[in-house]
Structures are given as structure tokens and as C-alpha cells.
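Table S4 entry, Helix-turn-helix protein.
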Amino acid sequence: MVDLRAEREAAGLTQARLAELAGIAPSNLSAYESGRRAASPAMIARIRRATVRPSDRLRAHRDEVARIVERNGGRNPRVFGSVARGEDTPASDLDLLVTVPPEAAWTFVSTGRELSELLGVHVDVVSEGGLKEKHRAILDEAVPL
């Protein structure tokens, strides 16, 4: 028997947050967890996908992420934020710092959307050229993809 409650708790998510991430009604998730309603194998897979951390998704698709960044004109992709610190949860987003030459700015615009679709998590892409001195912490914690 699948213990969805234990899996949710191991992922550090509330019922409400997991339901949101999985795109299901909180009442349905509650019914699945309590055994009042049986979850189909497809629903179990959907719920489990929502408990995966962005760092795990990035690890599984690192080469594809690098190809998308490069294809759109970016160079030197680096990770910062909770993923770089090893503190991400399934509810976290993925933050990328990229060097974008001025001539690639227009082609690079769609990169965040493409990466979000690939990874199934929100991806924020920040151009290194747009950082100010007050953003020094981003540069300091950024690690290569």
C-alpha cells in the first residue's frame, strides 16, 4: 500500500502545498492520504512528481539545460539560491545566473519558460550583466551548472 502522507511529510510539504504543486484539490489529496478514496496509478505518479526537488530535476536534465541556455545565446550557466545551498524543497524554484551577450538578448528571452517546461518547476533566469553591487551575494553563491 502506498503511504502518500509519509511521502508528503518526507518531502516537507503541507497537504495544501502538495495539492497545489500536483494540481489537484486539497480535499482529494486528503481523501487519498486517509484511504477514503483510492488513488489511481496515474494519480500516484502525478503526486509523486510534485514531491521532487528542483535540484533532483536539474541533476536529471543538466545536459539539456546547458543545451537550451547555449542554443538561446547564453554562456556560463550557474545555479544560485536554495538549490545552490542544498536547501531546496519540492516547493522551491530554480534560480540560474547566465552570461548573456548583448547580441543574444532577444533570443534569450524565452529561456526561463523553456527551462520551466523541461523541468516542471518555475525557473528564474538572471543575466549577470543586469546585476548591481547590491546583488553581490548572487555572484558569491553561484555554482557552475
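The beta strands are 75-80, 94-99, 123-127, 143-144.
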